[in-house]
Write a structure and sequence with these properties.
By secondary structure, this protein is an all-alpha fold. About 70% of the residues lie in helices and about 0% in strands. It is built from 14 helices and 2 strands, in the order αααααββααααααααα. Strands 1-2 form a two-stranded antiparallel sheet. Strand 1 and strand 2 form a beta hairpin.
């Protein structure tokens, strides 16, 4: 009990410091667009963790909800003239609808069969996005304007867009926290730990799984919608299977079944992937050395080795190992 109390005491301080850091990031010289991208992927990973870490459902097709919502939001703004808030609502609803369809078909199977069905359905959506005329094909949906939020707040300013993104991500994260600690969340944990026992207690397991899948898909859709508004485009990489692999990696590296793990894992993965972009430029200014850029295509070998080392050293993820160490240290 003491170890749990210690973790519960430390967690609010950690989240508070993170929030203060995000509030001050633009003033400290951080590139707002890059940090907004980090926040979008942190929300993506947290939504995926709700499904895998707390329900035990491994989806290989979560990129479908991210990319599908991104395309819906982009076309709603560019093609239908929607305001940003209506377009993001449409994208989130689109992600939830896809989640309902995918979940209804996939939860009839378990284990690897469930994962393969989600992957197959996601690949079907990928080819739809590749062939559909309104998606722009291989070029993607480009030039999506940010517009004005509620017709009042001009989002063309990166600083304004940054704080709007921060508010949305924080509210979505609080929703995830509330879901996990609700009676519904406790049932999800019971299903993950022992599904036959949850069934014997009278719970409609399939219904709970489907609802968790839809909630996760909707929050993933919100992340994709926000990403489109921030960056101004939606591309095929958003719906590609590699994006589904990235979010699994983010969750595992940060710590499966922890609230803070996906946030840290997404930050690590996105920063490593942007070695020649914003993060690489930051490292170059900081150290005077042009990190990674001399490696060319071989940089994937370096990042792959880093991931392997992290997985070997941190079997429960970075935050998972840290929490386990704190609990072991405080154990009587």
């Amino acid at each position: 009990m003491k170890s749990k109390t210690l973790v519960q005491r430390i967690a609010p301080w950690g989240y508070g410091l993170l929030l203060l850091g995000l509030l001050a990031a633009p003033m400290l010289g951080a590139y707002p667009v890059f940090v907004m991208k980090l926040m979008c992927f942190a929300l993506f990973a947290s939504a995926f963790n709700l499904l895998l870490g707390y329900t035990g459902l491994l989806s290989f097709g979560h990129a479908a909800f991210l990319g599908g919502a991104a395309y819906v939001t982009g076309y709603a703004i560019k093609g239908w003239g929607f305001t940003p808030e209506l377009a993001m609502l449409a994208g989130t609803a689109g992600g939830a609808l896809l989640g309902l369809i995918f979940g209804w078909l996939a939860i009839r199977r378990q284990g690897i069969y469930f994962s393969m069905i989600t992957l197959a359905l996601a690949q079907m959506l990928f080819f739809v996005c590749l062939q559909a005329p309104f998606t722009g094909g291989e070029d993607g949906l480009q030039g999506v304007p940010r517009g004005k939020l509620f017709g009042l707040i001009d989002l063309t300013s990166d600083l304004t867009m940054y704080y709007v993104t921060l508010v949305i991500v924080v509210l979505a994260f609080l929703l995830i926290v509330r879901t996990i600690h609700s009676p519904f969340g406790q049932v999800l944990k019971a299903i993950k730990e022992n599904e036959p026992r949850a069934t014997s207690l009278g719970y409609d397991v399939a219904r709970f799984k489907l609802l968790a899948f839809v909630i996760s898909a909707a929050l993933t859709g919100l992340a994709g919608s926000l990403k489109t508004v921030v960056l101004g485009f939606a591309t095929l990489s958003d719906v590609h299977w590699t994006t589904s692999g990235h979010v699994i990696l983010m969750t595992l590296m940060g710590g499966l079944g922890t609230l803070s793990g996906p946030i840290l894992g997404s930050a690590v993965v996105v920063m490593l992937e942007n070695k020649i972009g914003e993060f690489g430029s930051f490292l170059q200014r900081l150290t005077g050395v042009e990190w990674f850029s001399t490696l060319g295509e071989s940089v994937t070998i370096v990042t792959g080795l880093i991931f392997v080392v992290c997985v070997l050293l941190f079997r429960k993820g970075i935050m998972g190992e840290l929490i386990a160490w704190l609990q072991k240290k405080r154990a009587p």
